[in-house]
Each structure stands twice: as C-alpha cells, then as structure tokens.
Amino acid sequence: MIDIHSHILPGVDDGAEDLGVARAMAERYREAGVEEVICTPHQNAEHRDAARLKEAFASFSEAMRDLPVSFYLGAEIYYYPGMAEDLAAGKLLTLNGSRAVLVEFSTREETAIADAVFDLAAAGFRPVVAHIERYWYLKKDDYFLIRESGGMIQLNAGAFAHEHAVKTAKFLLKERLVDAIASDAHDDRSRSVDFEAAQKYVKRKFPRLYDSLFENNFTALFGMTSWI
Ligand SMILES: [Fe+2]
User: Fold this and answer.
1) Do 193 and 185 touch, CB atoms closer than 8 A?
2) How many angstroms is it from 191 CA to the middle of ligand 1?
3) d(CA 162, ligand 1 centre) in Å
4) Is the pLDDT of residue 189 over 70?
5) Where are the domains of the chain?
6) Mean pLDDT of the 1-12 span
C-alpha cells in the first residue's frame, strides 16, 4: 500500500514538527501496512524552495533507514497561475520526479478546478486533485469534468469520519471517480495516519473496489509499477 499525500517530512510546513513526531507517524504507517509514502510538503507561489525540501528530505530519509517504510519526495502545490511554467522549470516538485502532481485549491473561494487541471494536463503533467471532499462548491458534474480534463482524484481517508464528506465520498466511489485514498497526515495526534474508517467503509459498501484502493493502489493510480 502507498500513501501519496503526507506531511511527515519534519520541520518544513504545518506537518510533523520534528523527527520524533515523524517517527511516531512512520510507526503508524508500519502498523497500517503502508510500505511506501510520498512526502508532500506544501509549496505555493510564495514558497517554492525545492532545494530546501530536497535537503530536508535527504536527511529525513537517512534517519528513517531502519524502518520498513520507503519514502519518496513530492509536494502538495497550492494552485496559482504560472504553476505549469514553474513545474516545467523544476521550481516545483512532482510526485517522485514523475509527471504526476498533487495540487490543491482554495476551500473557501470557488475556483475553476477543471480549468486549472486542463492547463496542467495540457502542459504535460498529470494533476492529482488533493482532498477532493473539501471543495464544498463542486457540483456532481464538476467531478466528471475534472477527470475529463485530465485530472485524477484523491480523497482523504479522514473524509469517512465526517457526515457531509461521506456523502461526497460515497458518490465518488459509486461513480468510480476516486483514484487514490490518502492520509494527508500532519501529526501523530488528531491528524495522523488513519486508514481504518476508510477501509471499513469501502470493505462494507464497495467491496469490489477494496483491492484497487488499498492493496494495489499504487498500480491502480498509475497503471504501472515502475514510475518510482
Ligand atoms: Fe495536505
């Protein structure tokens, strides 16, 4: 199992504050049977410092070498006009150097997500829309449009613990619109690595999707196993 959205990389954003917290999170990954984790610290128009993130990642992965979890570097990028150009220029991080890009949008102001996705896809990237359940303003048609515009859809595992988000999750699963369920873990307390509620829900309501979403989600997401 792979987690493609995690703020475990310590000391670089609002995620793990230090190595101790990161280790506690890594321990939860081990318990949950997650073997691969893509670290996705925040990047945005003001904070793009890819070199600093690469440096932090190098010492982090060295410190985690004794654990049976492999870590890779990526980012969660807050969309801004010009993002595609900055990606092409290497100022922003894709998921482990692939063409896949984890991208987030405003959860307050309505944003034309499908249009942004289309622009990123047209520039040769594979946008993965982060925590899709948070964009309250999206209508049912918008989810299809995001997919048709070349986007992939990531749902947070935590969505299954919230009444409203569960409705969105159920709709998306029913329509086979979910490409990945990820933790978006920030700490080892309230926003930790927790796939249990999501796994229980999918097992109960959508048993046929379970394997592709949790066991072989790596293959399901990228259709191949060699991009890492
Ligand atoms: Fe995140």
Assistant:
1) yes
2) 10
3) 17
4) yes
5) 2-222
6) 95
